[in-house]
Amino acid sequence: MTKVSSSLRRVTAFIKQLPIAYRAVLPVLSLSLLVLLVYPGEESRATIVSGKDVVAGEPVIDGDRVVIPLELPEPESSAMLPEEPASVDVEPLVEDQVDESRMWAYEIQKGDTLTGIFEKLNLPLSDLYQVLEADEAVLALDNIKPGVKLLIDVDDEQLQRLELKFSIAHKVTYKRKLDAGFEFAETRLPGEWKQYAITGEIGRSFSVDAEAQGLDVRDVYQITRLLKEKINFSRDIRKGDSFEVLVSRQYVDGEATGDTKVEAVRMMANRSPVSIFYYDGTYYDENGRSLSKAFMRYPFNGKHRVSSSFNPNRHHPVTGLSRPHNGTDFAMRTGTGVLAAGDGVVTRVVNHKYAGLYVEIKHSERYTTRYLHLNKALVRKGQRVSRGQKIALSGSSGRVTGPHLHYEFRIAGRPVNAMTAEIPIAKRLEGKSRKEFDGLLAQYLTRMDEAQPGRGGLMVSQRSENAQTDKDAQSL
């Protein structure tokens, strides 16, 4: 009590020393502070979304989904449950009954981690580890980027279902099994591919003018990469040179998925025509010569025993669960050189809890290879590699029974048996393949000719400010 009285005397003495003008406004300031404390502003109380009050940090019913902010309350709080069942805009991959009222939707933001999301939902990390275990066969969780959507089903404080939606045409679902662990299903919808011809004249540079005419920046990058050995884009391209590109874009139920495929390119460079054409996952010139080297069947030198073959229905030797084996295992000593099976770009160098250290190489829009359980990576993400280049040393990282190399070959995102699949191993098309290519080449050239200005064919232009298809675009 004595301390309180002493403090009050000191405050009173301080106020008496203030100028008269300052002392006059003190009551007004005190009253304003009291009002703010008793009646907080609207922004601090709630945010109005779709006509409903939602306290900051709690789920928001936005249209047909429930959006989870990063700052989540504890899941046992009754305020976390949506007032109405949330409708999910995708069909379940596995034929089962899903209680949509438990489904949560969240879009990955920059800086997010699965560990952080599981912690905010108060889910046990053991659930995450079991999902990672199921993911060993597909490695989709390592490809999560901002914009990828998650659909999460939680019941009894346990994860029942996790769905990754990379696009409207590609999703991966992990579903809890009745006995133990999770199983996964991957769906890639073929959709409808619509072909467009984009033509133009170079004024500033190929990249600038091609994008102005409607090519996606990823398509421009791919074209310059494919033609880098034929064209020096800084020296050979002149003002007035022309370009013609056939590109297909994927749609599902009329909605663009964002996936595109460059099918043909014809350019004038330094007064000379240059062209490339897509056939069976690879690009060729008009004479059927491949732009890239063929693949090696085995990504190493010497001979190594196959310890586990490609088997989509394999029974896992460690967990006892049914897990697809999407690659071929070769028994080899730790430190054995691992070679790139073909030319390409390194897209992943990742340490996975179960797959161990692995490298992924994208060889084209159609072909990808993976090398798992490595001891050391000798390349970095984004690096270009050549066929036969040493990219890693084999090892026994991750969950394995012994040192070996797990080698995967994927075509259009789907794993195939690298030992038996029909993969490009020739540098020039011959026989039946050459006849098929010549027929497709004739179609490409006809469509590109029809797309010339004034011929009434398919021509896309995006020179308008809103970057939409020009009104005079016509279909084939």
What does this structure look like?
The chain is an alpha+beta fold. It has four domains: 2-38; 48-188, Nuclear Transport Factor 2, Chain: A (Roll), CATH 3.10.450; 192-291, Nuclear Transport Factor 2, Chain: A (Roll); 306-416, Glucose Permease (Domain IIA) (Distorted Sandwich), CATH 2.70.70.10. It is 20% helix and 32% strand. The chain has eight helices and 24 strands. The protein has helices at residues 2-17, 20-38, 42-45, 114-120, 125-135, 206-213, 217-226, 431-450, and strands at residues 47-49, 52-54, 60-62, 65-67, 103-107, 149-155, 158-167, 170-176, 182-188, 192-201, 242-252, 255-269, 272-279, 282-284, 306-308, 328-331, 337-339, 344-352, 356-362, 367-377, 384-385, 390-394, 404-411, 414-416. Strands 15, 16, 17, 18, 19, 20, 21, 22, 23 and 24 form a ten-stranded antiparallel sheet that branches.
Q: What key phrases describe this protein's structure?
A:
476 residues, alpha+beta, Nuclear Transport Factor 2, Chain: A, ten-stranded antiparallel sheet, five-stranded antiparallel sheet, 24 strands, 32% strand, globular, metal ion binding, metalloendopeptidase activity, membrane, Murein DD-endopeptidase, metalloprotease
Topology overview:
Blueprint: H1 2-17, H2 20-38, H3 42-45, E1 47-49, E2 52-54, E3 60-62, E4 65-67, E5 103-107, H4 114-120, H5 125-135, E6 149-155, E7 158-167, E8 170-176, E9 182-188, E10 192-201, H6 206-213, H7 217-226, E11 242-252, E12 255-269, E13 272-279, E14 282-284, E15 306-308, E16 328-331, E17 337-339, E18 344-352, E19 356-362, E20 367-377, E21 384-385, E22 390-394, E23 404-411, E24 414-416, H8 431-450
Antiparallel strand pairs: 1-2, 3-4, 5-6, 6-7, 7-8, 8-9, 10-11, 11-12, 12-13, 13-14, 15-16, 16-23, 17-22, 18-19, 18-21, 19-20, 20-22, 20-23, 23-24
